[in-house]
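Dear colleague,

Thank you for sharing your sequence with our group. We've completed the structure prediction you requested, and as agreed, I am returning the results in plain text so they can be pasted directly into your records. Please verify that the sequence below matches your submission; if there's any discrepancy, let me know and we will rerun it promptly.
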Amino acid sequence: MSRFIEPGSEFGQLFRTFEHTAFRLETRDEYKSSNETEALRQFVAGEPVDMGWFQNWLSMIREATAEGKRFARVRVVTVPLTDYSRFGVFCSGFTNEAGEDIRYLDRAHADELPDYDYWLFDSRLLVRMRFADDETFLGGEVIDDPAEIVRHNYWRDVARHRAVGREDFAP
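Please find the predicted structure tokens below.
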């Protein structure tokens, strides 16, 4: 059984109510978000990047990790990196400093993984993310089927095993 949740307060609540771990598998080379459009433009142009748009996320990570919770993600990326993926590596310096463990996996070594993004909360709640054709986030399908959750836990473990930390991926 599953249900769809749109971006906004219900989706955001998942990040405030998990107990132990929040893991994301990212599989896209591009994402579109109005929050980061200007920062991405600044980054690509080689200008100083205003990270004000990112502060709420960083604060949430700091608070959660101070409580002993863990944020982790693996980004499956195409090499050579797109501008967006390079921007993601830049941003991961801030999120890693805030307490999130972001790792990278070359797409050439990700053939066993799904080709879609998901969040896994406490190894028991799965949210398969949905995107429009223009890469805009539409929301997520909340899935509570135990077999699907076990499969996604396995994929999390495979991804983390094969991925490398930011400092090794982009020294």
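Summary note from our side: Residues 146-162 form the longest helix (17 residues).

Kind regards,
the structure core
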